[in-house]
Amino acid sequence: MSSINIKDIAKLAGVGVSTVSRVINNHPDVKKETRVKIQDIIEKNNYIPNNSARNLKMLASNNIGIIVKGSFNPFFSKIVERIERSISNENYLLTLHYNSSCEKDDSEILIEQIKEKRLNGVIYLGGNFDNKSNNYLKLLNIPLVIASANISDDVDKSGFSSVGIDNIDSAFKAVDYLCKMGHKNIGLLSSGFSDSNNRNLRTFGYEKALLKNGISINIDYYRDGYYTFESGYEMAKDLLNKNSEITAIFSTSDIIAVGAAKYILSTNRQIPNDVSIIGFDGLEYGEFFHPSISTVAQPIEEIADNAVELLFRQINDMESLNEHIKLKTNLIIRDSIASVN
């Protein structure tokens, strides 16, 4: 073992002892060139900090984290696959963490993962970042991209980049289309119990469309559940058993829409003649269901590609301006919607 100490490393690197300490403890506020130089000196001299037996590779700052809100989410899975392919071409290691905690804020989980995994950058899929997240996000000083998440307008966005869609406008277009087809009794199925961020925004879009078309909001038509096929089935069952006049359903996800459609067909009702239905996300489940289910398709590949590009832009230059991108969705009409006379 080399007898070199932290002061020697600082002298060789031409920096202060505090800078070396920050690199050893993997603090993010060190320029990439300086960090690489110090790590190179540490490795060449076989320096082990605090006389511990930790592997020196733990000091590497080439770890990129992907944090996914929730556990079962085919939409995020598609994005993760795309991100993994993009990052595999770079000299970075990728760590994946699914956050299904209901006890901690998403910002708290983010900080825990940065410290635990010694991350050099993070892409956070989903989550809810509101005003109280400000104090956490300001302290990070690490390349961060939040994708497909709810970020309230009063959050200071200077410490991260983001990419997503306009959930309110996208939901509005879907429900407005149902209204234009003559539907007035339109049910709402959402994953509010497990995905409150998108639930709220897409619900606002649903309500906005009803009001624009002169239709009163009826809270008896609202059902909250989970992001599962089973939940969609049960919500549709409860909704239609208590509100037989409903002629259309807007679901905040394709997963729920497929479950709902399964229930509708099990009761000898026809889709779309008895009940029309439209989902959200653009997953292939709805396309290959029979009848095929209309949807609001999110640009999955564009979300993934923009997230990676924004992240590496920050990694290469932390002084660069953060960007916040809103991508367009596509309303896809299939066999699940009929007009009402």
UniProtKB/TrEMBL annotation:
<dbReference type="Pfam" id="PF13377">
    <property type="entry name" value="Peripla_BP_3"/>
</dbReference>
<dbReference type="InterPro" id="IPR028082">
    <property type="entry name" value="Peripla_BP_I"/>
</dbReference>
<keyword id="KW-0805">Transcription regulation</keyword>
<dbReference type="InterPro" id="IPR000843">
    <property type="entry name" value="HTH_LacI"/>
</dbReference>
<protein>
    <submittedName>
        <fullName>LacI family DNA-binding transcriptional regulator</fullName>
    </submittedName>
</protein>
<dbReference type="InterPro" id="IPR010982">
    <property type="entry name" value="Lambda_DNA-bd_dom_sf"/>
</dbReference>
<dbReference type="GO" id="GO:0000976">
    <property type="term" value="F:transcription cis-regulatory region binding"/>
</dbReference>
<keyword id="KW-0804">Transcription</keyword>
<dbReference type="GO" id="GO:0003700">
    <property type="term" value="F:DNA-binding transcription factor activity"/>
</dbReference>
<dbReference type="Pfam" id="PF00356">
    <property type="entry name" value="LacI"/>
</dbReference>
<keyword id="KW-0238">DNA-binding</keyword>
<dbReference type="InterPro" id="IPR046335">
    <property type="entry name" value="LacI/GalR-like_sensor"/>
</dbReference>
<feature type="domain" description="HTH lacI-type">
    <location>
        <begin position="4"/>
        <end position="58"/>
    </location>
</feature>
